[in-house]
User: What shape does this take?
Amino acid sequence: MHNDVSQILFSAQDLDRRVREIGADITRDYADVAESEGIVLISVLRGAAIFMGDLARAIELPLEMDYMAVSSYGNGAKSSGVVRILKDLSSEITGRHVIIAEDILDSGLTLTYLMKNLASRNPASIEVATLLRKKTKAQADITCRYVGFECPDEFIVGYGLDYAERYRNLPYIGVLKPEIYQ
Ligand code: IMP
Ligand code: MG
Assistant: This one.
């Protein structure tokens, strides 16, 4: 696995530190949420599950964790533009404070679709925490309240991010050698 990575962008320590910072920001920003409303942390499977697991433990407030699965990528390295719900939430989010934990914002197609879909269920609020935001030219205009790191427009893997379902368990985030997916 390690041999397929040309460069490490964010080490395990970098990720740990940044996720704790975001958790502290969320703890501060949501400290006054009423118990009757509550926070629902939603992750988009499968890539964001590792980030959400670490983020949840860095937030010192009561919260619920829920999962959605959508597809926009297949096994390729380029967005297909097609977003499909493969698994919907288990909880009701009406009147609740939703935080979407995303692994990476690339074209933004996935999040645009998801936010529209979740907003139609009338949550009290909806914000995005994305671990990474790719510096691409064509990115949907999405307001992410929490961004971990900006990253270059390359295909990256690790800490949840995959190529053809591999590399998710790398403890760091790195650039996948192009010869692996070309
Ligand atoms: P978007 O709809 O183009 O923003 O794509 C978002 C999803 O594509 C992310 O949640 C990832 O699952 C996947 N993705 C985008 N860029 C990469 C990458 O560089 N490596 C691995 N997965 C990626
Ligand atoms: Mg994803």
Summary: The CA atoms of residues 27 and 73 lie 32 Å apart.
